[in-house]
């Protein structure tokens, strides 16, 4: 999601600084002219310079799984059992399992059963 700015305008430093968060959080950073009342205003020295559009929750679990891969510096497909347990613990810490059907989706991504994910969750709660 690119930052939405007119071609003749220079990107404000705050908008530039926040742009890496777009893909990670699923948010949209907007120029102040593009914001609406439901967007979060971005203030710089008391002046609105842009806006933050709340994230679209579609795909949030995939973003969390990708973030786990980055955090662990390892692709899911290359993880052993212990690393998969660690991945589930991280996802649990981040609240991923509050999402509907997340256990099934994580199980599919990890190529394990739902029962295995539940076991990993139980194990992570005892550590």
Can you walk through the features of this model?
- The chain has a 3-stranded antiparallel β-sheet with strand order 1-3-2.
- It has helices at 13-18, 21-25, 60-72, 81-93, 102-110, 114-125, and strands spanning 28-31, 40-44, 47-53.
- It has 6 helices and 3 strands.
- Mean pLDDT is 88; it is low at 1-8.
- By secondary structure, it is of the alpha+beta class.
- It has 2 domains: 13-53, no CATH class; 60-125.
SSE arrangement:
Layout: H1 13-18, H2 21-25, E1 28-31, E2 40-44, E3 47-53, H3 60-72, H4 81-93, H5 102-110, H6 114-125
- Described by its quaternary structure, the protein is single chain
Unreliable segments (pLDDT under 50, ≥5 consecutive)? 1-8
Distance between termini? 38 Å
Instruction: Quickly count the helices.
Output: 6
Describe the sheet with the most strands.
3 strands, antiparallel
Task: Evaluate the radius of gyration.
Answer: 19 Å
**How many domain modules?**
2
Order of helices and strands: HHEEEHHHH
Q: Estimate the mean pLDDT confidence.
A: 88
Number of strands: 3
Structural class: alpha+beta
What gross morphology would you assign?
A: elongated
Approximate helicity band: 40-55%
Strand order of the largest sheet: 1-3-2
- What amount of the residues lies in strands? 5-15%
What attributes does this structure have?
127 residues; alpha+beta; 2 domains; 3-stranded antiparallel beta sheet; 6 helices; 3 strands; 46% helix; elongated
Q: What is this structure, in a nutshell?
A:
It contains six helices and three strands.
């Amino acid at each position: 999601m690119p930052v939405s700015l007119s071609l003749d305008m220079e990107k404000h430093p705050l908008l530039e600084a926040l742009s890496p968060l777009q893909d990670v959080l699923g948010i949209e950073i907007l120029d102040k002219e593009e914001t609406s009342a439901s967007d979060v205003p971005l203030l710089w020295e008391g002046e609105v310079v842009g806006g933050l559009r709340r994230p679209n929750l579609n795909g949030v679990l995939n973003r969390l799984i990708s973030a786990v891969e980055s955090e662990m510096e390892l692709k899911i497909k290359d993880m052993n059992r212990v690393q998969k347990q660690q991945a589930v613990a991280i996802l649990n810490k981040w609240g991923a399992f509050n999402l509907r059907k997340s256990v099934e989706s994580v199980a599919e991504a990890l190529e394990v059963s739902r029962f295995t994910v539940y076991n990993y969750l139980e194990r992570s709660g005892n550590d």
